[in-house]
């Protein structure tokens, strides 16, 4: 049985991940739209990075594990022929030796059967998982009789600013990781043997997340796989603990604890987890009225509830932008002029394939003009009122970036930032805790727990990542042009709920304290 690089990386996450891939892969979920979008971004950057090697022999390109013009099984033979010919640079070849196989991104000849190895990654820096990835590739190549001189990660330079055609040399950055890779070669060889031992097992390994080798970004993904196999967890399962790590999960399982309500308060919990378990045990909301009152008393009318939706891509869509820069294409602004006043909404959605920021800023500045309750002669420099957002760090960063790019709006945007208040604070600081927040403070967690009559689940677009993908596909790439009007209405409905939800949550807080 042969283990590929991608399968080995699965093993490093969780032994059962590899076993399922080999023996029961139907139980592994197919990539959702968000994950597929990440793959697409990687492929997009790869196209530019490969241009750094204009004379290379390209043997195939990846597309859903298939190859255009070159079948996967034929790649080792074709790769061997290119090596024998002394080809200087080979792109996307495959080498197999000792029952392990790997597709490499770039193999550059530096001497007799000696090469530099490049891994192309669409991240903006070297990530920890890139090192064992390259170590596995190096072992495959050297087992096949080649010598690897140096290993590099070819990643995105996020300081690059687009001006006209994309410059492959400037948008990419090369980092030498030879020393780090060589340090773990022996460890990687041992892990390869452990992976083969797992494949000798006739029974699926223990699925517990305690066996995960990584925490960040992996636990939730793995738990979704476990649920697909074993069924939904109870609503208040220990696996719903906020920000769990593998050590905490192992401790809970070792003590036979299955539900949040059964976790002892003197267990190995973070402050956030402790608040969550306390709320679970009491069955009531924890409300620090004094802190919340002080927070509310600092608000100044009129109140502006502001939310942006943004586009972002590894390849900047327009001049003046950096890779992955979040560029607002839409906002919703709900305005409450005075306590008990009538709530009104302003909004803007860019629908053309052009830089959305100039038009968005013009509309935003007009919508932040003095409310009817102020004299018509008041200037924007006299603007007052708290600007309320959820996780204001995001909106403030967008305002700062837009102000630098468009100086005539810089003072206006700086003024908005000075008046900004983060409505997430009462929840992130634990002044208001509900067991059904599950230890989280996102608006998607808070709103349904406090005001279940408002639901994102009823919307065609229900989260920010989806809004970004849909707008980019429809407006920038021209997909679903026959449905564009309906899609734009869906975007307005989604962004509008974000700002209305903040207004509704604020009123809820006022009523409770």
What report would you give on this structure?
The protein has helices at 5-13, 15-23, 33-49, 75-85, 130-143, 168-171, 178-183, 185-199, 219-230, 246-254, 271-282, 289-297, 357-367, 392-405, 410-418, 425-428, 443-450, 464-476, 484-512; strands at residues 3-4, 57-58, 62-63, 66-67, 89-91, 94-97, 100-103, 106-111, 114-120, 147-156, 172-176, 286-287, 303-311, 327-336, 343-349, 387-389, 420-422, 432-433. The chain has 513 residues and is of the alpha/beta class. The strands form five sheets. Strands 2-5-8-9-10-11 form a six-stranded mixed β-sheet. Strands 15-14-13-16-17 form a five-stranded mixed β-sheet, with helices on both faces. It is globular, with a radius of gyration of 27 Å.
Q: Would you tell me the overall average pLDDT?
A: 93
Quaternary organization? single chain
Biggest beta sheet attributes: 6 strands, mixed
Q: Give the strand order, joined by hyphens, for the main sheet.
A: 2-5-8-9-10-11
Enumerate the spans where pLDDT stays under 50 for 5 or more consecutive residues. 63-67, 370-381
Structural class: alpha/beta
Topology:
Blueprint (H helix, E strand, L loop, with lengths): L2 E2 H9 L1 H9 L9 H17 L7 E2 L3 E2 L2 E2 L7 H11 L3 E3 L2 E4 L2 E4 L2 E6 L2 E7 L9 H14 L3 E10 L11 H4 E5 L1 H6 L1 H15 L19 H12 L15 H9 L16 H12 L3 E2 L1 H9 L5 E9 L15 E10 L6 E7 L7 H11 L19 E3 L2 H14 L4 H9 L1 E3 L2 H4 L3 E2 L9 H8 L13 H13 L7 H29 L1
Parallel strand pairs: 1-7, 2-5, 9-10, 13-16, 16-17
Antiparallel strand pairs: 3-4, 5-8, 6-7, 8-9, 10-11, 12-18, 13-14, 14-15
